Amino acid sequence: MSREAHVRFYEGLGVGFPGATHLVVVCRSKTAAERALELIRQIMEKLKLKLHPTKTRLVDLGREGFEFLGFHFHKRTDQRTGKVLPYFWPGQKAMKTVRSKVRQITGYSRKRVPMAKIVNDLNLVIRGWRNYFSAGNSTKQLKALDHYAWLRIRRSFLARQGNRGDSLKARFPEWLACCGMEHFYKPGICGIGFERSRGIDNR
């Protein structure tokens, strides 16, 4: 696309264009996948485009799975029916990124920031992340993030209040219940449909 004269002209004016397209093709067999990959490569060559050398690959959905748009896709055996079905949950990279954001918001460098501001900043991250990852089979990951956020907000609360022993720790649950902090996992919104009907093995 960047070879086109009109595209170069508009880019020169500061007009932005979408990045490269990410494509996932699911096939029933390795042979079919190899055939599809070769066909896509031929089409791309006609368009004078190239597949990414490291991001283009064939994977076994039942063995290693793959990550796409922040989710990890994998085949698992349904414990109720015994059928092998596709599942998806937040990928490791996405989990690492959101933990980093929570850690930055509640870090020691923000010790002088009011707790109301800390909670508000956390809620923005939690709400956005929950809205995106509430689909699929994400219950286990969302609950793990709730535990992580609880540990971080508790640490932040105790640090800015000073070392007052067990009395301060005893006040934390009451403060947390009233501070308005949201949760990554929210019943009725997360675990919708397929996952909620399983109730098992939400990896």
**What percentage of amino acids are in beta strands?**
5-15%
Helix content: 40-55%
Query: What is the spatial order of strands in the main beta sheet?
Result: 1-2-3
Count of DSSP helices? 7
Shape annotation: elongated
**Radius of gyration, in angstroms, nearest whole number:** 23 Å
> Which stretches are low in confidence, meaning pLDDT under 50 for 5 or more residues running?
192-203
Brief description of this entry?
By secondary structure, the chain is mainly alpha-helical.
What report would you give on this structure?
The protein has 203 residues and is mostly helical. It has two domains: 5-89, no CATH class; 91-198, no CATH class. The chain is 49% helix and 8% strand. The protein has helices spanning 5-12, 30-46, 92-105, 115-133, 139-161, 166-178, 194-198, and strands at 66-68, 71-77, 84-90. Strands 1-2-3 form a three-stranded antiparallel β-sheet. A hairpin with a 6-residue loop joins strand 2 (71-77) and strand 3 (84-90). Helix 3 runs antiparallel to helix 4 (115-133), helix 3 (92-105) packs parallel to helix 5 and helix 4 (115-133) packs antiparallel against helix 5. The two termini are 40 Å apart. Mean pLDDT is 82; it is low at 192-203.
